[in-house]
Specification:
alpha+beta; 6-stranded mixed β-barrel; 2 domains
Length: about 425
């Protein structure tokens, strides 16, 4: 469609001085609008990708990639299951656990909590708790010692620190001559951790798996086994492979099931944000329509001369499409370059702005993620660039079509 002569004339029209400075101003505004929209879209999506990656890392640093348990009873053959499934492709670590919802009491305060019994020597294979210990060590949890490790917010609420006592109240009951009483057990605080997720720092407590089995009367059994994979996105595939090797009374789950709604919400938010910011690009792109309409009006006589020299309506249309495409292409390229540069340096630029204006966008006492993470995705950049250019191309069609319909005789009547 675009022959060399049409491209040459279109580029010449673009470079030539307009008789109306207003047309040039609208062209520059359209170009800058596209560039700013593309830059904002790339930066915002990169920051949202960074947040998603950091949240996934924090969540999956505590949650298991794949979990195996029984529907009715405690797992008694967990050592054999753990060792056998450790040979499955992609499995790089496993650890048994005991889990129960309990009440913790200390200093006349009571808080609901998720109690997890762990094997300290194996826990590092499936979680990052040891790397996030504020006080004490995970290895200080010993069998029959009845020690407990608390999340930082939970310890702060209960007002306890290392060496203090915490009473664990389980939902199970014990019949006594005085009536039915809940099971109580005193534990000594051996450590405090902080992983940066309120869900875990406020609600999770860890004890030795043997103490948990005794407390919950599991007869040396466990609630289940947690597995860690070399690639967390293989979890659905690995879950299906494991299911083929187990009888129906076993239950398998993975992180995509347990945290599905959370990550779906993030993806929905990203999609909505993409649509909202793409509207900025669309508004700027459709400014090209007004620019080209005014250019066509300004150059009616030149169009008529081109027609008398043998230009077909399709050739005239191509000449004016070149102008619109050039505006969109320059705006898109400038926006992509600026957006990529900003996304790659946002973690440096934002702290500099905070220091200069003495403000903090994400206060550490309110948000656990106190910096702006950024993760540039090449597929996002290419998608944004393609959408932006296509919108610019669509915007040129109507005014270029109007130019092709100019009647030479009518245009030259008063010249």
């Amino acid at each position: 469609m675009f022959r060399p002569l049409e491209i040459f004339i279109g580029l010449r029209y673009t470079r030539a001085k307009q008789r109306s400075g207003f047309i040039s101003f609208i062209s520059m505004t359209s170009m800058l609008g596209i560039a700013l929209g593309v830059m904002a879209l790339i930066t915002v999506l990169s920051v949202m990708n960074g947040f998603e990656a950091q949240l996934r890392e924090k969540i999956l640093g505590m949650a298991s990639h794949v979990t195996v348990s029984e529907y009715q009873n405690a797992l008694q053959d967990w050592p054999e299951l753990g060792e056998s499934f450790s040979q499955v492709d992609s499995v790089i670590g496993w650890a048994p656990f005991v889990r129960a919802e309990v009440m913790l009491s200390a200093n006349q305060r009571v808080s609901g909590s998720l109690l997890r019994g762990i094997l300290p020597e194996r826990e590092g294979a499936v979680s990052d708790i040891q790397q996030n210990m504020l006080q004490g060590q995970l290895q200080s949890l010993q069998a029959s010692d009845f020690g407990i490790v608390l999340g930082s917010e939970l310890a702060r609420f209960l007002g306890v620190t290392l060496g203090d006592k915490v009473t664990v109240i389980t939902p199970q009951v014990t019949p006594t001559p005085a009536g039915i009483l809940p099971r109580l057990k005193r534990f000594t605080v051996r450590g405090v951790f902080e992983v940066g997720m309120y869900e875990y720092d406020r609600n999770l407590a860890l004890i030795h798996i043997n103490d948990g089995s005794k407390l919950l009367r599991l007869n040396n059994g466990v609630t289940g086994i947690r597995f860690k994979l070399d690639d967390l996105f293989k979890a659905p595939t690995v879950t299906r492979d494991m299911a083929r090797l187990l009888s129906p009374n076993y239950r398998l789950s993975n992180w995509t099931m347990e945290h599905r709604n959370f990550f779906k919400a993030i993806k929905t938010e990203k999609r909505v944000m993409f649509i909202i910011l793409m509207l900025i690009v669309a508004v700027a792109a459709f400014n090209i329509v007004s620019t080209l309409v005014m250019v066509v009006t300004d150059k009616r006589s030149e169009i008529a001369i081109l027609r008398t020299l043998g230009f077909t309506p399709r050739s005239v249309m191509a000449v004016f499409m070149v102008q619109g495409i050039l505006i969109g292409l320059i705006g898109t390229v400038v926006g992509v370059i600026a957006g990529v540069a900003l996304a790659l340096n946002v973690e440096t630029i934002v702290p500099a702005i905070e220091h200069f204006f003495q403000v903090q966008f994400l206060p550490a006492d309110i948000y656990y993620i106190s910096d702006l993470p950024s993760k540039l995705d090449s597929s996002d950049v290419s998608t944004i660039a393609i959408y932006s250019f296509v919108l610019s191309l669509i915007s040129t069609i109507y005014p270029a079509w109007q130019a092709s319909r100019v009647n030479p005789a009518e245009a030259l009547r008063y010249e």
